[in-house]
Amino acid sequence: MKRSAAFICLIFLSAAAHAWWNPPGWEPSAEEEPHFAVSPGEVITDSLLNLYRSTQGSVGGSSCPSYPSCSAYSLRAIDLYGPLVGTVLTAARLVSEGEEGNFAPVIHKGRPLVYSPPEWDMAYLKGER
Amino acid sequence: MRLIFAALMALFLTVPAIGAPPPPQDAAGINSFGEALLGLGESYRAATEFMRVLHHFPEDRENSRRALTGLGRAYTMAGRWGEAAGVYSNIFKSDPSEVNRHRLGASLYQAGSFSPAVSILTGEESDSMRTLATLAWLKEGDLSEPPPGLDANLIHEFKNLPQRSKTTAGVLSALLPGAGHYYVDRPLDGTIAFVINGLFIWGTVNAAQNGRDELALTLGAIELIWYSGTITGAVAGAAKWNHREKERFFSRHEAGAFPAWSLIPIPGGGALAWTSRW
Q: How far is A96 from chain B (nearest CA, A)?
């Protein structure tokens, strides 16, 4: 009996998996690969940011008007450009966030958010955008 | 129990058979269905129907052409401009009309293939095609020598767009934190930067004057980050200001330069009268 129930469950699951399809161009975005800190500075900054995200960030809710949020931006910037440049980019983001909506596209993720990833800011600084 | 289980299994197994599509028999009917899906905005399902026609009825020229047109429209609706350009390229080879040239050029432009778009669109009498060719050439970025046939007024307007200097923004922010933000039309950000930097500089100086060296060092280090961030933000702000001006220029002129696209009439029914721009 248990084996039969398990088999039926398996059929349901396979049907659900089969139903989950998207044509090319409409796939859900792939999850980013986990990143591991590789330098002492990165360990410290990542730890502080993760502490913020798991305490204040999770209690206060998502009130950041930008996407990615400032803490996520900071983690990404440090991951991409190291703790020094990443921290400076984060400071630039925090200072310039108020009027970013006049210059960057607005996307909708439950609510309107200003899209400004660190890659774009670096491209602006390098004159590539 | 086993009998019930077998019956359930049989029921489950029949589901795919019920859901399977009927075998294709009539190209015009499939095209019509695809066009109806397009009308509902179901671009990828419509694309599947048009591909079905192209696969099963390659010898039916009239319906293949109709399916290709529909497929191109489906791709443009989905914003898949590279594929749309491929389809319109096929259409243009068999029918090099002005409309098809315009659609191919516009698809290439939207796909970011600016150089081929310039080649396709240059030399045409149509104002919208000349505008689009000029915009494509401007987006290529090499403004040294414009090819003949482009809109000189548009090139002049682009070259004289207002700009903000990254160097000026950075120097202003270095001299007075926040001034660079004012320069790039961010007065609120400039005020925030001025207040934050002012507070941290005041705190550092105050701590140093009172002999609290560790606190002064800590606040000074944090201030250094804010100061660097303020300059960086102002420099990036100037680049964003310039980028926004360019985007506004392109969207202003793109508005009238893209081709109109009419939906194909449904056979046996009233023609769909609407026309849209893409």
A: 5
State the Cα–Cα distance between residues B274 and B256, nearest whole angstrom.
Answer: 18
Cα B140 from Cα B108, distance rounded (Å): 12
Question: In chain B, what are the domain boundaries?
Answer: 166-254
pLDDT, tens digit, for every residue of B31-52?
A: 999 999 998 988 889 999 999 9
A63 CB within 8 Å of a chain B CB: no
From the CA of B188, how many Å to the nearest CA of chain A? 7
Separation CA B230–CA A123 (nearest Å) = 17
Is A93 within 8 Å of B233 when comparing Cβ atoms?
Answer: yes
Interface confidence (ipTM) of the complex: 0.71
Could you tell me how many CB contacts below 8 A there are between chain A and chain B?
86
* Mean pLDDT on B232-254: 93
Give whichever of B148-152, B155-159, B254-258 has the largest mean pLDDT. B155-159
Among A11, A25, A88, whose Cβ lies nearest the Cβ of B232? A88
**Across residues B233-256, what is the average pLDDT?**
92
Q: How far apart are CA A70 and CA A4, in angstroms?
A: 51
Do A96 and B44 count as a contact with CB atoms less than 8 A apart? no
User: Are A99 and B186 within 8 A, CB to CB?
Assistant: yes
Can you list the residues of chain A whose pLDDT is less than 70?
A: 1, 4-5, 7-38, 57-62
* B225 with A25: Cβ contact below 8 A: no
Residues A125 and B166: their CA atoms lie apart, in Å, by 9
Q: Looking at chain B, which residue has its C-alpha nearest residue A125?
A: B236
B181 is written with which tokens? 């933000």
Closest A-chain CA to B191: A95
| Least reliable range by pLDDT among A8-12, B188-192, B247-251 | A8-12
Closest CA to B100 of B119, B87, B112, B113: B87
